[in-house]
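F.,

This is the one I mentioned.
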């Protein structure tokens, strides 16, 4: 009887640990449908297809969707950690909005938890701050994700 109770307690503890891990870590594989880049300067506007963003990434959320590590696919089909983001759950729109942790990465990511669609955007601020020739560059990508947990 003690063995049965012990096995029951072990199985309950294990399932509780697994449930907590699911709450604190979630992985999605994301494929890009469209990518464009361009520039805006006074009256000139220009957008074109681009490869600024990769066509396949993995979004690894931890700490209950508050920290994101974006991983990119290499030539050897291995995923390597690329950037980290701080995220906020916007319950009104059922989406996660992520902003970069440091200045090395300047784009933002929005992931809808309902449709599993995402958008990455990068817009420079040269125009706002009067730097250089005051051309703002725009990079936008959107696609969809699959739960891989």
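My design for it:
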């Amino acid at each position: 009887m003690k063995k049965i109770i012990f096995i029951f307690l072990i199985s309950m503890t294990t399932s509780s640990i697994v449930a907590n891990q699911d709450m604190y870590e979630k992985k999605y594989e994301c494929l890009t449908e469209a990518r464009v880049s361009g520039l805006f300067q006074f009256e000139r506007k220009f957008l074109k297809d681009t490869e600024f963003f990769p066509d396949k990434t993995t979004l690894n959320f931890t700490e209950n969707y508050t920290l994101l590590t974006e991983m990119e696919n290499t030539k050897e089909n291995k995923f390597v950690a690329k950037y980290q983001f701080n995220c906020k759950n916007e319950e009104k729109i059922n989406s996660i909005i992520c902003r970069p942790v440091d200045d090395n990465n300047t784009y933002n990511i929005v992931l809808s938890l309902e449709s599993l669609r995402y958008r990455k955007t990068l817009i420079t601020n040269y125009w706002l701050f009067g730097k250089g020739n005051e051309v703002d560059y725009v990079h936008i990508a959107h696609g969809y994700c699959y739960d891989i947990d």
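The two ends are 36 Å apart (CA to CA).

Talk soon.
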